[in-house]
C-alpha cells in the first residue's frame, strides 16, 4: 500500500531533510511539498493524502490553523514535526498521530511510519470489504499488515 | 549571568538544517554556520556586560543573519552599516542581535512575504545612536503584534544599558507610520583606547 504524503515546512532544508530520510521507505510517495499553512490546506483538499508531516511555526497559518482549516474534509493522518517541545499536548488534542522533534532522527521516523502503516491497514480493511475492486493502486498486493 | 538568552526554537531548527546539509554532504554552509556559533553560544563564560567594538557587534549580526539565510534560503533583506569610523564605536556586546532576532520573530517570520530589517548607526557631537527597525515587506502594511511579546528581550537591553551608562543613554521603541517597528538607542560615543578619533 502506498502512503500518499504531503510535507509542510517553511524551511526548504527541513523539507529536503524529510525527503531524504523518507527515501528509504519505498511505500511513502510524496505528492506535494508546501511552505506555508495556506498552501497546505489547499494541497490537502486537492490531493486527499494519507499522511501529512506538518511544521507548527510557519508564517500566516500555523500548523494548528491548518488542522482547523480541514474541519469539513476527512482529515489525513497528521505528524507534527517541530522544534517546540511545549506544543506536544496541544498536538495530541488536535488528534495528531505523532509528534517528531527536530532534528528528526531516522529511527524515530521509522517507528512513526510503522504506526502509520498499522493505522492505515486497520482503516483500509473495512473499506476494502465495502468497495472490493477499488484498490487498483496496490498492484504489489499486501506488503504489510 | 547568562551571556545570551538562547532561543531553543532557533537552535533546534538550525540543527535540523545542518543535519540536512550533512546528509547532502554540503559542508560549506554548516561550517559557516558553526563559525557563526561562537559569539552567541560557544562562549557562555564571557561576560554579558563587556563592551566590545561595534564592528564585532555587526560581525556577530552578520553571522547570525547568515544562519537565518541558510535556513530560509530566501534573500533576507538586512541593511547593515559599516563605515569605518563608526565601526570603531564601542557598544555593549550582543546588544543589537536580540533586536534583530525579535524583528525576525515578530515581523519577518509571521509574514508570508517577509519584511525588511534596517540597522543604522549615526554619530552626533554628544554620542551616537543606533536604530534598528523593521519595514513592511513588498509595500504592504502589517501590524506589529506587540501583545505577543514577552518583554524579556527589551527589558534585558534596558537593564544592560542602565548598567553600562547609568542615566546617560536613551532607549526608545515606536511603531512606525508604515506599520513597522523601530528601536532607537543613544549612548555616549566611545572608541577603542589607542585608536584615533
Please summarize what this structure is.
Chain A has helices spanning 12-22, 37-47, 63-68, 88-93, 106-130, and strands spanning 3-8, 28-34, 51-54, 77-82, 98-101.
Main traits of this protein?
heterodimer; A: 145 residues; alpha/beta; five-stranded parallel sheet; 19% strand; globular; B: alpha+beta; five-stranded mixed sheet; two-stranded antiparallel sheet
How do the SSEs of chain A run, as a string of H and E?
EHEHEHEHEH
Helical fraction of chain B: 40-55%
Outline of chain B: globular
Binned, the helix content of chain A reads 40-55%
Radius of gyration of chain A: 15 Å
Structure report:
The complex is a heterodimer of chains A (145) and B (197). Chain A is of the alpha/beta class and 145 residues long. Chain A is 41% helix and 19% strand. Chain A has helices spanning 12-22, 37-47, 63-68, 88-93, 106-130, and strands at residues 3-8, 28-34, 51-54, 77-82, 98-101. Chain A has a five-stranded parallel beta sheet with strand order 2-1-3-4-5, sandwiched between helices. The relative contact order of chain A is 0.17. In chain B, strands 2-4-5-7-6 form a five-stranded mixed beta sheet, with helices on one face. Chain B is an alpha+beta fold. The relative contact order of chain B is 0.14. Chain B has six helices and seven strands; from the N terminus they run ααβαβαβαββαββ. Chains A and B meet through helix 1 of A and helix 1 and helix 3 of B.
